[in-house]
Design goal:
Blueprint (H helix, E strand, L loop, with lengths): L2 H10 L1 H12 L5 H15 L3 H14 L2 H31 L5 H15 L6 H37 L3 H14 L4 H41 L3 H28 L4 H19 L17 H13 L3 H8 L10 H16 L10 H20 L13 H10 L1
Length: 395
């Protein structure tokens, strides 16, 4: 078997590796049992313990006598693995109790789910009872926090404070992955932002027309004093236009109405210069003239070509501005995670550089999971599943 899979199994848990080596060392093993082993290892890597136990049960029913006995032993061994997993979740819940109730709640929920797959006694049973109580108390607490944040976010949207609204919505997501309340607020923000952009584009268009008229008056004006006054009006129009364009592109990069108006601004500036009147406009950042969809497509193309730093640089675009497209944002974070993970050298996985790369990959995946708790890696990148699943289940 492939050495990378052996290494992954060794990292995952000794019990999995033992099971794997035992099953595949026997040439007489039935094909069905080999398939059972592969399925079992996949479920363990994804922390799907109940499914793994079901597979072991199938193994005992269908495999040859010697393998049936071993599957029975493995059922005992997996209990220790689940017990350890529950302990990790309880520790995570306790550590995050005063930091983020959402993280603590999800850790308790995973402990309860894992504990339901098999019966426990002693310390593990106490931990599962603690987790059940924690789920009940934290869920109520989080519901109150989300309600308060939602009210504040809705007010920010009404007041057209979109950056503030985005921060509040993301805070809700951090408490409740994939929150329905946050999704509704995002949709509301998108609608209000669209109205805002429409109004802004009309105002910019009107200012440009007024500017053009004032430039024509300045060109034909003979009085130096009146010409000077008209130049002051021109500069004031230009400042107002610059301000509105800047705000608009910060809130909604690549908006075609604003991009088109910027093209008109360039035309007015060039035409005025030919007539001896200087009209100066600020030049927007090139990123602000491209839509989020175009930026994401560029990032995907870069990661597919192995240009990972270019991908990461491109996707920084999504960590600023009033981005509310949750589907687009979650995909952006997933590809950022892939770009970090792809740079890890497995032969030096414990070196400081590679640990940092892994940490950055998990941070990006965590952002994606906060927006979509069930998100998966795109086709062709399944080799990074262990990092994604570790982030999903262990934080």
């Amino acid at each position: 078997m492939n050495s990378l899979i052996l290494k992954a199994c060794r990292k995952l848990m000794p019990a999995v590796l033992i099971f794997y080596m035992f099953v595949y060392s026997s040439e007489a093993l039935a094909l069905e049992c080999a398939e059972v082993s592969n399925s079992y290892n996949d479920k363990i890597r994804q922390y799907l313990f109940r499914d793994a136990l079901d597979i072991l049960s199938k193994c005992q029913e269908e495999c040859p006598k010697s393998q049936k006995d071993f599957c029975g032993f493995q059922t005992i061994a997996i209990k220790a693995t689940i017990r350890n997993y529950i302990g990790i979740q309880i520790k995570s819940a306790r550590d995050n109790a005063d930091i983020n109730d959402g993280i603590a709640l999800r850790a308790y929920q995973r402990a309860v789910e894992a504990g339901s797959s098999i019966s426990f006694e002693g310390n593990s049973r106490d931990e599962i009872n603690e987790a059940r109580k924690g789920v009940a108390s934290l869920q109520e607490k989080i519901n109150l926090q989300v309600a308060s944040l939602a009210t504040e976010a809705e007010q920010a949207i009404d007041e057209l404070r979109f950056d503030k609204a985005r921060d509040l919505i993301f805070e809700i997501y951090s408490l409740d992955n994939g929150s329905a309340d946050a999704q509704k607020l995002s949709a509301l923000a998108v609608d209000r932002l669209e109205d805002y952009m429409e109004n802004n584009s009309r105002e910019i268009d009107q200012l440009l027309k007024s500017l053009d008229t004032t430039v024509n008056r300045a060109v034909s004006e003979k009085s130096p004093q009146r010409k000077k006054k008209l130049k002051q009006e021109i500069d004031l129009y230009a400042q107002k236009i610059d301000s509105k364009v800047k705000i608009s592109l910060l809130l909604k990069p690549g908006d075609q109405r604003i991009v088109s108006l910027y093209s008109n601004m360039t035309s007015v500036s060039n035409r005025s210069r030919k007539n001896g009147v200087t009209v100066s406009f600020d030049v927007p950042d090139s990123d602000q003239l491209e839509t989020p969809t175009v930026k994401l497509q560029a990032a995907i193309a870069s990661v597919n070509k192995g240009r990972y730093q270019e991908t990461i640089s491109t996707l920084k675009y999504f960590r600023s501005g009033a981005q509310f497209d949750i589907e687009l944002l979650s995909q952006a974070y997933i590809y950022e995670g892939i770009a970090w993970a792809a740079q890890i050298n497995e032969s030096t996985a414990n070196a400081p550089k590679d640990r940092l790369l892994r940490l950055n990959a998990k941070k990006a995946f965590k952002s994606a999971l906060s927006l979509n708790a069930h998100i998966q890696l795109p086709r062709g990148y399944s080799k990074y599943n262990p990092i994604l699943e570790e982030t999903r289940h262990l934080g």
